[in-house]
Amino acid sequence: MTYKIINQVPTFNTDSVSHRRQLAAAINELIQTLIPNNISVERITANTTLDSTHHDVYCDTDGGAITVTLPIGIDWKEYRIINTGSAGNNVTITPNGSQKISGVNASITLSDGAVSAIRYEVTEGWW
């Protein structure tokens, strides 16, 4: 992981408004450095195969069931898959090929309102 050098927080000066602005800018820069801004959020309404750009996937199943297919595992890649529907349709999470979810080559089913956080580990597969 690469860390960005944060600008030094300015010393207090007699202009308290200017100082607060400089301090707020330094705090915002620190927050932006510590919190990744590359998390992708996507809403889907149809069958989808995930890739490395996905992260949070909101599945609107009100129009019908959805199958989410996991890609070939990428070590430590994590997805959060949410069934946001309310019509009784499921989301089915399917592994790629012979890869396993929780130690077995099977799918996971999410009913309305259910959430699955799933991460890949090269030795263990999807958990």
N→C terminal distance: 24 Å
Spatially, the strands of the biggest sheet line up as 1-3-5-8-9
Assembly level: single chain
CATH top-level class of the largest domain: Mainly Beta
Q: Tell me the total number of β-strands.
A: 9
How would you briefly describe this protein structure?
With 127 residues, the chain is α/β, with parallel strands linked by helices.
Give an overview of the whole structure.
The protein has one helix and nine strands; from the N terminus they run αβββββββββ. With 127 residues, it is α/β, with parallel strands linked by helices. The chain has two domains: 37 residues, no CATH class; 86 residues, Jelly Rolls (Sandwich), CATH 2.60.120. The strands form two sheets. It has a five-stranded mixed beta sheet, with no helix packed on it. The two termini are 24 Å apart.
Please write out the topology:
Elements: H1 16-34, E1 41-44, E2 48-49, E3 56-59, E4 66-69, E5 78-83, E6 91-94, E7 108-110, E8 115-121, E9 125-126
Parallel strand pairs: 1-3, 2-4, 3-5, 4-6
Antiparallel strand pairs: 5-8, 6-7, 8-9
Features:
single chain; 127 residues; alpha/beta; Jelly Rolls; 2 domains; five-stranded mixed sheet; 9 strands; elongated
